[in-house]
Structure prediction request, 347 residues.
Amino acid sequence: MKDVKNMAGVTDTVEFDIKPEEEIKSETETKPKAAIDAPDSGSYDAIIIGGGPAGTTGGVYLARKMINTLLISPDLGGQVLRTSEVENYPGFKTISGWELANEFKENLMQYRIHLRIGDRVVAVELSENGGIVQTEMGSEYSFKSLVVATGTRSRLLGVPGEKEFYGRGVTYCATCDGPLYKGEKVAVIGGGNSALTAANDLLSLGCTVQVINFLPEVQADAVLVEKSKSHGNITFHTNHQIEEIVGDMSVNGIIIHDRESGETAKLDVSGVFIEIGLIPNSTFAEGILELNDRKEIVVDCFCRTNIPGIFAAGDVTNVPNKQIIIAAGEGAKAALGINDYLLKKKL
Prediction:
């Protein structure tokens, strides 16, 4: 109910038909989703490769433009699913990575879009009017335009014991595997934001943490460093490199090398969390799209690649500052670019 003035200046009382919150929630939960599973083959005006912030946002924008779109991805969420807590995404004071990924997913699912989740693109072939993508599971789809939003994967350390003990003490995801090491001695390899975020996650589980950083100084944001130091049971080994991961049936230690003194030492740990950066998922694009020396897809400010009709967005590109909100914005830009591209093709 609200008081408003009519044209004569007299105050009238107007009643609004506002539904109870429970009723609105019930209607939302029972409303059928518009997104549908894709068949094993088909032709689309646009295909999005990737289901992280860039891919899902691009999907929303393309669907809202009523463009016949297919999104192909192993999951919906990407690296966000492996993030414990997000504190810098507008609209949320703090939100878990899983919850934020689910927000992206729910927003996408309400629109008319075809989804191929649980699969990944392994090859792209170009043609005069677009091209074809082939997936790991043997499906094939043709496109008039394409968005590559495949994100990144964890960089390997490349030391003895890393592959041998993967899944038996070696991990690349503190969010996923941290609870398995509750209260134990662990090592975090790296000195950036990902490494210190992992360290803080493990400290909150009662772990004793050894941080091994190749450089003389930790590169992470000061707020993350201070938060980790406030726990007390963390030690920083700067200007050190890890030489070997050792163990029997599972990890029981690491050998580290002091790059200044030349001394080596063994640290007794049961878990090794490797956080030394990410590698773009651009292998399938080699020889087709222009890549820089870091294997990132080179794009202009409109998310256009060197091939007309093919756009790229998010962490797989050369756009600096790999952030969730930047990836989402780039996904929107790529989708709007595709809309303009397809409109011009019709002229």
